């Protein structure tokens, strides 16, 4: 079996319904997965939910339901949202599934049998919202008087728990060497630098990988220690290998692992870039078997504020798609476009309804929608709804060459941007060609060519419309990963039927592949309200 291009998302905590931050990670991973499929690669996109731990146990208790019933309910909110947002995942793993629990327990047993685990009493601090342990040395303010989490700034709880530990510091020299040898392991560069400088200081000696059952009952039982459940991060990180057959199905594992990209948010960088490689290293994986890339994106705020329940400013993707954008037939794609276009992937962004509606109007309705609408209605009116052919006689090098060149170069530009996971740059390249095509319509004024006036008359008219149809064809292909439904709608309007969209068809422009195609049913893509 050839190896799939393996993309993962974090597993989302199911203590509450999904918000914009979760949807951002998911849309980004989906966009990447669709892009690699567009290139003809076999892709495996894994997503799922992180269902154990103290935070979820508390949320279940607050709702008055047993944890399993509670998480079963919240998981549906996530699945429903991924459907609404056109997420094309290949597998959805829940950490409460037996296929995952088995692997976690097997890993624990193996580490224990190899005498890698250490039994001791932990004294330190715990952040329940982040489900993260902090030692005094890791707290910038020290441990007093009332320390807050370095990650989320919420109050920490002092804990003293006996349990099982995995050595961290013992693996530190290896991890430092690995990072040096793999300068592209963590992206963007700022995040790589952050971890490289973290590793210049000694790591905590150990990572506690269990919680006492009397404090946290909702977790995977530790097979060799009756009184403990597995610490939620040790449990959750292992999903990336449990989902693809680790320890169970060698052929399946090698058809997927190592992961090509772990898409995560910057808040969980340390867990993925320090704990995760160390866990894998402890399990005996070699440098070649480490994940290939960890990409940490930025954080969405609302205006200048962090989103939080107490501020009541949490952006609900359902509300944006179903209410704010209710007049839009492709509302989910508008939302996807905004998130991927407005902020360079890796940086923080500020969400506002005005910014979203502004992009909808300027980029989508006035530029993209207008190009498709004007071009296809002229083909309908002047060519009986059949895409005309380009003729040598009708060509104008002065006007046609720059647009044709830009269209020809577009897939290459998108490819360069996507190979660096620069969604905003890829979209910018697409939208620049769209604008250029709109200017071309103004310059060539096809409506003046209808009665044989101007240079070349009808031959020129046909050439102009044929070139524009081709631009739209390439735009539809390159937009597929970002706005799958809009891309499909344009495809149908162009009369492409069920022929697949492939990136290769956007790069090779020989002959006149669209000539003679009958346009499909037309509709306005982004209606104004
Ligand atoms: N359960 C852990 C991940 C375990 S992975 C083995 C977790 N879950 S989470 O639900 O809190 O977060 C999941 C993803 O949502 C993370 O990538 C996180 O960065 C992202 N976001 C949560 N809030 C966010 C914003 N406000 N903005 C952008 N993304 C953020 O962490």
Cα gyration radius (Å): 27 Å
Largest sheet: 7 strands, parallel
What is the percent of helical residues?
A: 40-55%
The CATH superfamily of the domain at 354-506 is identified as: Isoleucyl-tRNA Synthetase, Domain 1
Bound molecules: 5'-O-[(L-methionyl)-sulphamoyl]adenosine
Plain-language structure description:
This protein has 529 residues and is α/β, with parallel strands linked by helices. The protein has a domain at 354-506: Isoleucyl-tRNA Synthetase, Domain 1, CATH 1.10.730. 46% of the residues lie in helices and 13% in strands. It has 18 helices and 15 strands. It has helices spanning 20-38, 54-63, 67-84, 98-113, 172-181, 189-198, 232-237, 239-242, 250-254, 269-282, 317-324, 331-342, 353-383, 397-419, 423-444, 457-479, 484-493, 504-507; strands at residues 5-8, 12-13, 43-50, 91-94, 118-127, 132-134, 157-167, 186-187, 206-208, 210-212, 228-230, 261-265, 294-297, 300-302, 349-351. The strands form four sheets. Strands 1, 2, 3, 4, 8, 12 and 13 form a seven-stranded parallel sheet that branches. β12 (261-265), α10 and β13 form a beta-alpha-beta unit. The radius of gyration is 27 Å and the shape is elongated. 45% of the residues are buried. The mean pLDDT is 95. The structure holds 5'-O-[(L-methionyl)-sulphamoyl]adenosine. 5'-O-[(L-methionyl)-sulphamoyl]adenosine (MSP) binds at residues 10-13, 21-22, 24-25, 50, 236-237, 239, 264-265, 267-268, 299-300, 307.
């Amino acid at each position: 079996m050839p190896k799939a291009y393996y993309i993962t998302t974090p597993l989302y905590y199911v203590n509450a319904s999904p918000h914009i931050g979760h949807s951002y990670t998911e849309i980004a991973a989906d966009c990447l997965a669709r892009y690699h499929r567009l290139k003809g690669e076999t892709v495996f996109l894994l997503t799922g939910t992180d269902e154990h731990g103290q935070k979820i146990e508390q949320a279940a208790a607050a709702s008055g339901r047993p944890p399993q019933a509670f998480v079963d309910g919240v998981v549906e909110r996530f699945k429903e949202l991924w459907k609404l947002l056109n997420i094309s995942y290949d597998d959805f793993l829940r950490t409460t599934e037996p296929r995952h629990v088995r692997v976690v327990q097997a890993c624990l047993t193996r580490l224990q049998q190899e005498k890698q685990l250490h039994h001791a009493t932990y004294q330190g601090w715990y952040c329940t919202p982040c489900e993260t342990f902090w030692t005094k040395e890791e707290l910038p303010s020290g441990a007093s008087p009332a320390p807050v989490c370095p990650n989320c700034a919420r109050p920490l709880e002092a804990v003293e728990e006996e349990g099982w530990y995995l050595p961290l510091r013992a693996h530190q020299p290896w991890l430092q060497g690995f990072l040096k040898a793999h300068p592209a392991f963590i992206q963007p560069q700022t995040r790589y630098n952050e971890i490289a400088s973290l590793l210049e200081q000694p790591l905590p000696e150990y990572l506690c990988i269990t919680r006492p059952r009397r404090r946290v009952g909702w977790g995977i039982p530790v097979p060799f220690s009756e009184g403990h459940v597995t610490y939620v991060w040790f449990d959750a990180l292992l999903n990336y290998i449990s989902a693809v057959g680790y320890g169970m199905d060698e052929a399946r594992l090698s058809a997927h692992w190592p992961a090509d990209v772990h898409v995560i948010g910057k808040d969980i960088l340390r867990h993925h870039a320090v704990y995760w490689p160390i866990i894998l290293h402890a399990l005996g994986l070699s440098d070649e078997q480490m994940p290939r890339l960890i990409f940490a994106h930025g954080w969405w705020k609302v205006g200048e504020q962090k989103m939080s329940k107490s501020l009541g400013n949490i952006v609900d993707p359902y509300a944006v798609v179903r209410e704010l954008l209710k007049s839009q037939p492709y509302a989910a794609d508008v939302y996807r476009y905004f998130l991927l276009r407005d902020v360079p992937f890796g940086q923080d962004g500020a969400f506002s309804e005005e910014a979203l509606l502004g992009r909808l109007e300027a980029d989508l309705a006035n530029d993209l929608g207008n190009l498709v609408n004007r071009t296809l209605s002229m083909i309908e009116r002047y060519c009986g709804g059949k895409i005309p052919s380009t003729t040598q006689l009708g060509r104008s090098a002065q006007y046609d060459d720059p647009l044709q060149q830009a269209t020809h170069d577009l897939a290459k530009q998108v490819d360069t941007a996507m190979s660096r996971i620069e969604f905003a740059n890829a979209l910018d390249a697409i939208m620049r060609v769209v604008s250029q095509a709109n200017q071309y319509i103004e310059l060539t004024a096809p409506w003046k060519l209808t009665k044989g006036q101007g240079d070349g008359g009808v031959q020129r008219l046909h050439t102009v419309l044929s070139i524009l149809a081709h631009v739209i064809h390439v735009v539809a292909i390159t937009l597929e990963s970002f706005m799958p439904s809009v891309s499909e709608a344009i495809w149908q309007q162009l009369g492409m039927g069920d022929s697949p969209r492939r990136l290769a068809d956007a790069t090779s422009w020989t002959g006149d592949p669209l000539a003679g195609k009958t346009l499909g049913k037309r509709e306005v893509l982004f209606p104004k309200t």
